[in-house]
Amino acid sequence: MSKKKLAVLVAAALCGGAHAEVVVYGLAMPFLENVKTTDATVGAPSDRPNMVPASAYTGITDSSRWRMSSGTSNLGFRGTEQLSENLKVVWQMESAFQVDQNTGPGWSGRNSKIGLLDPRWGEINLGQWDTPYKFVSLQVNPMKAGYVFDYTPIMGNPGFGVPATTTQFQRIGAKPDAAFDRRQGNLVQYWSPRWAGLSFRGAWSTDEGRTVDAPSVFGLRPQLFSGALIYDAGSLSVRYAYDRHDDYFGLSALGAPGGSGAGSANNRSSRDEAHKLVLLWRIANTRIAAEAEQIRYRSDETLAGGLREYKRSPTTGSSSSSSGTVPAACGSPMAAPPMAPASARAAPRAARAAWVLRTGTWAGSTASRSARKCSSPTTRWTTARRARIRCSRS
Predict the structure, then answer these.
(1) Model confidence pLDDT, tens digit, residues 167-198
(2) In a domain, 359, yes or no
(3) What are residue 206's phi and psi, to 5 degrees?
(4) pLDDT (tens digit per residue) in 103-117
């Protein structure tokens, strides 16, 4: 069967009328990587605090090895149905395309929605989608398809085993609850049209996981709010985004020591927030990208010695051109509360390097989470600063 016939059959199956349109799209972009770890710390250091247990300091490094990853390879369907002169239905179903044969998200496990669009007033849609907070950073990566050494290990992520990016539809009581780089389900969004270069996005992820009071446990109302303000003027784009997670208990997900459980009498609620500023500027064939953010986790912890607040303020930057890209990055250590037990006072140090092969371009990247230094091939383009903590006191 020819490709043209297949496209006609797909369109006939998915379109309900003469004013409908369906597009089949996809991206296959495997990465061949060489990875290794060096300088693994032997024994828990006593001169700097952390929430990583002493057992994490094995001193074992990973040997150099080759691997393949699929990046953001995907296969999707999107379409429209004209309802009137200006109003149309818009929809999309996108799935991960695991070109390296590893198991990935299932059908419509990526950005998927259905909504109404009027070019004069904007679009409102329901589904699972990248939050506005994540959206403003997507173009920061030197490559269109995300890969393991992109900005996500530094931005929107406090470390401590929290995944660099996550897809979930509500609080799950695990480490992904602390991530700010999110594809969120149960999402209601509004995207404005562009007025004189200015546009905005707003999103709310419903409180479907709300619980009721029970003996010794207080009811929780986990929900997420996200918004972005974008100004585009020619080759310059300036973006601001805000994210708020109510009752997601990011501190508990981080494994904060000395605290009580989420929803207990000593920890009834939480609010995790993040602010981000992004700058994109193209000069001839060169693109400069930079972003800075502050993420903060807060809970109502009242138990003496329990952690009530953690704050981190990282920045990243990159430059790319038509002939290739050379990003470099480093991150700050994650600080544990001064009241943490001595066995938890540690800051792991590891340097990672990868060379990603792609037709027509090449990219190299290093990332270091050293408490004392950052490592890059040429310059320190990325820094992360001011990891602040606050503890409860008796």
Answers:
(1) 888 888 888 999 999 999 999 999 999 999 99
(2) no
(3) -65, 160
(4) 666 678 899 999 999
Amino acid at 238: V
CB neighbour list of residue 376: distance below 8 Å, 6 or more residues apart: 328, 329, 330, 366, 368, 382
Higher pLDDT pick, 176 / 50 = 176
In Å, what is the CA distance from 129 to each residue of 14, 76, 133, 339?
Answer: 21, 13, 11, 39
User: Is residue 104 domain-shared with residue 203, that is, in the same domain?
Assistant: no
Residues 80 and 184 in one domain: no
Which residue's structure tokens are 């149905």?
Answer: 81
Within 13 A of 373's CA, how many CA atoms are on the CB side?
6
- Show the beta-strand stretches assigned E in the chain: 20-27, 31-35, 37-38, 65-69, 74-82, 88-96, 112-118, 122-130, 166-168, 182-191, 198-205, 223-233, 236-246, 270-283, 286-299, 307-321, 324-325, 351-358, 361-368, 384-391
Q: What's the sign of the alpha-carbon dihedral 360, 317, 174, 227?
A: negative
Q: Are 33 and 353 in contact (CB under 8 A)?
A: no
1 Cβ contact list (under 8 Å, min separation 6): none
* Amino acid, single-letter form, for residue 237: S
Structural domain that includes position 307: 130-327+377-391
Sign of the four-CA dihedral 142, 144, 149, 152:
positive
Number of Cβ atoms within 10 Å of the Cβ of 122? 16
| Residue 218 to residue 288: CA distance in whole angstroms | 48
* SS3 call for 252: helix
